[in-house]
């Protein structure tokens, strides 16, 4: 029987030592990770990031700036009454604003829906419950399987086809949500559907379908432009 040469034996020995060293190093890293304390939960008012999947992350972590939301506190006082921003229905100094994305997440005792827009500026807005939600312009009824409807209207929006060629639309020229889009894959408990309509006569309408009329709070953020709707969950009313 042929025996391996000294060179081959040396290579095999080195390979065995390296493999064993890597295995021990990996075990040590796992033990060190297990011994570390978990990161503390965000404190009231602390800036957090809401990822597209709905997870809450500390702002100190690396994240896409376009997903950055407000703190884990509600954006205002919860109520079922109609709400208007101070400037409503003024268009404001807005440029190229139209809806591009809807995100959602449960934030403990309330859930949050974020409607992101292209463009820049600070449009005005209003919100109210309605018994008969309709499509803006044509007035056709909006039909979903939800029991209550919260309508949010943003003033100062523009459809992409009416924008001037040299006007800033958005950092990535994001596509507008199609007119009448029904968004049902929400990470929510009370909201079942968000219906987005294209801008019409410089306003955009959004219908949020809920299991019942619940207290809500709403605000507008910029850079990027976002409407944030917080909806109170059971046990907190």
From TrEMBL:
Q: Name one Pfam family in it.
A: AMIN-like
Q: Which residues form the signal peptide?
A: 1-25
Which keywords does this chain's UniProt record carry?
A: Signal
* Source organism of the structure: Yaniella flava
> Where are the compositionally biased (Acidic residues) regions?
56-68
Domain of life from the UniProt record: Bacteria
The molecule here is called AMIN-like domain-containing protein
The AMIN-like domain covers: 99-232
Known InterPro entries for this protein?
Answer: AMIN-like
* The UniProt record lists the keyword Nucleus: no
Region annotated Disordered, chain positions: 29-92
């Amino acid at each position: 029987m042929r025996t391996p040469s000294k060179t081959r034996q040396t290579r095999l020995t080195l390979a065995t030592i390296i493999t064993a060293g890597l295995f021990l190093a990996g075990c040590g890293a796992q033990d060190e990770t297990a011994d570390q304390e978990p990161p503390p939960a965000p404190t009231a008012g602390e800036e957090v990031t809401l990822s597209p999947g709905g997870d809450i992350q500390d702002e100190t972590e690396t994240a896409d700036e376009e997903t950055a939301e407000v703190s884990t506190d509600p954006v205002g006082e919860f109520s079922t009454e109609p709400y208007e921003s101070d400037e409503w229905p003024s268009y404001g100094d807005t440029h190229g604003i139209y809806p591009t994305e809807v995100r959602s997440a449960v934030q403990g005792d309330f859930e949050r829906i974020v409607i992101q827009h292209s463009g820049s500026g600070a449009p005005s807005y209003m919100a109210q419950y309605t018994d008969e939600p309709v499509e803006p312009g044509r007035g056709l009824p909006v039909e979903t399987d939800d029991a209550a409807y919260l309508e949010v209207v943003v003033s100062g929006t523009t459809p992409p086809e009416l924008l001037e060629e040299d006007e800033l639309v958005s950092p990535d020229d994001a596509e507008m949500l199609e007119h009448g889009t029904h968004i049902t894959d929400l990470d929510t408990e009370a909201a079942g559907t968000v219906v987005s309509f294209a801008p019409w006569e410089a306003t955009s309408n959004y219908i949020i379908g809920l299991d019942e009329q619940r207290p809500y709070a709403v605000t507008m953020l910029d850079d990027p432009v976002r409407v944030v709707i917080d909806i109170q969950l059971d046990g907190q009313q």
